[in-house]
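Hello, quick one for you while I still have it in my head. Could you read through the record and tell me how the C-alpha cells relate to the sequence? No rush at all, and the record is pasted right below.
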Amino acid sequence: MFYRDKIYGEFEITEPVLQDLMNSRAMARLRKINQYGTWVYFDPKFDTTRFSHSVGVFYICKKFGSSLEEQIAALIHDVSHTAFSHVVDFVFGSGEKQDWAENLEAEFVAKTDIPVILKKYGFDYQKIHNDKNKFSIFERPLPALCADRLDYFFHDAIIYGKISVEDAKKIFDDIIFTGQELAFMNREMAYFSAKKFMEMAEMWSSPIQSAMYRELAEAIKAAMTAGILTEDDLFTDDEAVMKKLHAANLPEIQSHLKYIGPDTIAIFDPEGVAIKTKVRFIDPPVILSGNTCQLSLLNSDFGREIDEFSKNLSNGFHVRLGLKSDIM
C-alpha cells in the first residue's frame, strides 16, 4: 500500500496489520474530521484531517525506527476524536487541557473494529494502550519533542506560511533518535524550530480561533439540551453534526453558528467572554558532546522567551466575536 503526503512524499506501508488498520471503519471516520475544528470554516486552506495527521505521526515513528507496536499506537491515536476535534473540549469544560477525547480513547476504541484487526495479527489493543507511556517517539508530555507534535507542527506551519516544505525537510533531517528521545543535532536548527512552533502556538490559541471554538461548543450544548444532538452524534463526523445544527431552527443555536465562517472578526473586550486555552511550546534537546541538553539551558534568551510566552497565554483573554459585514 502506498500513501502520499505533501511533506514526506510517497511511502509504502508494508505491514499487513497497518494496512488493515488504514482501511478500518474507525480510521475511515477520521477522513471526515478536520484537524482544526472551526478553522476550516474561516479559511478553507486548513484542510488537514485527523486521518492524514495520524498517518503522518505513524510515518515519523517508522522513520525513526520505532517498534511495530509504537507504530500501531501512533496510527490509531486519534480514533476517539469527535467531530470538530478539540471543540468538544469546550463543550465539556476541558479547553485548557484538551484531553476529553483522549480520556475516552480505550473505552471508545474497544467498540470499534480495531481490537478485532489487532487480534487477527496477534496484538492486544489494551496492552498497546497501556504501554503508551513507555514509547519514546510517538507521544511525550509537553514541552518534549515527539512525532505527534512534529507532524501537526509541520502541516500547520506550512499551511499558515510560517515554514516551507523545504524548511520542514531540513528540520526533519536534523533530528535523530538517541535511543531515549528525539533530539536536534544542530543548536541553530533547534532554535529555529522552537521559535516557529511558538509562532504557530499563537495561532492555535489565537482569540479568533478560540472564540469560534467556544461559539460552536455553545451551539452544540444548546442542541444537546434541546435533544437535537446526543453524545453519540459527536462521534460521527463534522458534516453530519453541522448538518443537524443548521437544520435546527432554534435561535439559541443559530446565534452561535453565525460566527463560524470567513466573515468573523475577534475583538478584545474586557466585558467579553473569558477564554483560556492550552499552552503549547517545545523545549527540544540538542546533542552536545555526545549528550543531550535542553535548548533553554543552552540559550538563556530562549528560556526567557518561553517564560514570557507561557505567562501571556496562561492569563487568557477576554474577547467577543463580530462580523465584518456589520461594520462595513
In short: The longest strand covers residues 264-275. The radius of gyration is 20 Å. The first helix runs from residue 16 to 22.
